[in-house]
Design goal:
Keywords: DNA-binding. The protein is α/β, with parallel strands linked by helices. The chain has eleven helices and six strands. It has two domains: about 5-115, Response regulator (Rossmann fold), CATH 3.40.50.2300; about 125-200, Winged helix-like DNA-binding domain superfamily/Winged helix DNA-binding domain (Arc Repressor Mutant, subunit A, Orthogonal Bundle). The radius of gyration is 18 Å and the shape is elongated.
């Protein structure tokens, strides 16, 4: 399991994140500590870092390019910033002041080698990806009719709740369909599913 590094300069937010982290979490006091980590070792860490006056989006992108698994934290998240960060290799983008249950979800998601983005940014990315290109339907051959219906609604940026309402099933059943889709198409999350379908050949 990759150790977590936290560089959060808001004291209350830092306490919140630390209260959720387990024993494999270390607090970083300054950016020099990150610079001291050898390049070949960076890939072994997950870094949660707060954007502020001294930590710019570009400096976070540089850390991701160095090899860290980076989750950027913003006091005021916005779609454009999140998309730019994701396009440059970050693993997640979240609100610095997220509630503890959400922090737990974020940490467990990135630890499982999946990407964490908030719902509005995920929707903006899906829309951007699907706007100008119709996917090849070859992927449908691997799925059941119900799994195809579920996936088509994911491609329309519908939430699990909206999919459940549209198909007249429970959210639990939607999650089961998506687990099967992820397994059959060999992806780990909605974003990688959309990317795979968009680039299907």
């Amino acid at each position: 399991m990759k150790p977590l590094l936290l560089f959060i300069q808001d004291e209350n937010a830092c306490k919140n994140w630390l209260s959720v982290c387990t024993n494999d979490c270390s607090l970083i006091e300054n950016l020099q500590q990150l610079a001291d980590i050898k390049d070949e070792q960076c890939k072994h860490y997950l870094l949660f870092i707060q954007i502020n006056d001294s930590v710019t989006v570009n400096s976070i992108i540089s850390l991701a390019q160095k090899g860290f698994g980076v989750v950027a934290l913003s006091n005021t998240p916005n779609d454009a910033e999140g998309i730019k960060l994701f396009q440059n290799g970050i693993r997640g983008y979240a609100n610095t002041f997220a509630a503890k249950p959400r922090i737990e979800q974020i940490i467990s998601t990135v630890k499982a080698d999946s990407v964490w983005l908030g719902p509005s940014i995920m929707q903006a990315m899906f829309t951007s990806l699907m706007r100008n290109q119709l996917p090849n339907d070859g992927w449908k051959e691997l799925l059941t009719d119900r799994e195809i219906e579920t996936t088509d609604l994911v491609l329309e940026t519908k939430s699990n709740r909206q999919i459940a309402e549209a198909l007249g099933i429970t959210e639990r059943t939607v999650k089961a369909h998506l687990r099967n889709v992820f397994e059959k198409l060999e992806v780990t999350d909605r974003l990688s599913l959309v990317l795979k379908i968009k680039n299907w050949s």
